[in-house]
Amino acid sequence: xxxxxxxxxxxxxxxxxxxxxxxxxxxxxxxxxxxxxxxxxxxxxxxxxxxxxxxxxxxxxxxxxxxxxxxxxxxxxxxxxxxxxxxxxxxxxxxxxxxxxxxxxxxxxxxxxxxxxxxxxxxxxxxxxxxxxxxxxxxxxxxxxxxxxxxxxxxxxxxxxxxxxxxxxxxxxxxxxxxxxxxxxxxxxxxxxxxxxxxxxxxxxxxxxxxxxxxxxxxxxxxxxxxxxxxxxxxxxxxxxxxxxxxxxxxxxxxxxxxxxxxxxxxxxxxxxxxxxxxxxxxxxxxxxxxxxxxxxxxxxxxxxxxxxxxxxxxxxxxxxxxxxxxxxxxxxxxxxxxxxxxxxxxxxxxxxxxxxxxxxxxxxxxxxxxxxxxxxxxxxxxxxxxxxxxxxxxxxxxxxxxxx
Length: 405
Prior knowledge:
Elements: E1 2-3, E2 6-7, H1 20-24, H2 41-45, H3 53-67, H4 77-92, H5 94-129, H6 134-137, E3 146-152, H7 154-159, E4 161-172, E5 181-189, E6 198-200, E7 206-208, E8 217-222, E9 231-242, E10 251-254, E11 275-281, E12 287-290, E13 293-301, H8 302-307, E14 309-315, E15 318-324, E16 333-336, E17 352-359, H9 368-384, H10 386-404
């Protein structure tokens, strides 16, 4: 059997098979029209409304060859083959095609009138709701505020710094205009069902492909640039000047710098929200912050503690000198006023609190010369210590008593 140059094996009564065209009435007493007046023959054949007769013929030949049951074993092949031929038959009948175009035009006018009525109603409703607020009527909707952590070192928080903050903005995809779909000039096979219109089910058998509604071919598909979301992610780096004296938990507000999420009003061109940077302080190897006081543990040898004198201790600005007392009754804690975390506003600067730790030198680290010096120092200290002097006096008395006996 030949239809418009396409040759098919008409198998009525041969091998128990029946030609689908013969079943539909093609080539017999007259074709049975399978398409309704609402079905789009352009979409069925995958051509544009401006397609030439040659384009329509080529599309029909390709689809007919693909869907013919003798070539395609899919369960939906026969029904799809009938739809393709019915669509092409409509193109071959100028009167029916004109009637279809008139029906489509009337339906389009009705839909446009409905949309226009709905738009007018929405406009009137919006005007009524904003009648008492003329100042707010001209404002664009503001985007949502956004919070993000900003980690600083103790020195950066104390003296201020400039930090780079990485943000991710949502932008409308330019390739698809934000719709997430792209139109194809010619139909393309559905990737989900590989063009057969049916997909396998887990329990066995097949079902209609949801990607193409069983047609096997698509006139539009997901945009490859945005994966069908309509939005793209764009990275942006913001340089932020951090003022001095910020503590953990405080927030830094940047007006209008919030990143626009995909689909948000700011991403569509509205006013961006505010960006709030929540300050976090990184752990410091030397200092521990209590309020605005800085606490630091300083190792000092026992000999330096005995002798007293100047030593160098760390501070936020680098180092600072500390004068140790030679009084043995002096404690191991020293406080340097105003050298802690800097002042901010009405909050005064904190203190630098130093906790001295006695460090004993292991005996194996002492040289012979050092041991000789220690012996002389020990004798000197024994004579100066009241408790040791009394102890030596008791020992001397015992020696004398033993010698007399």
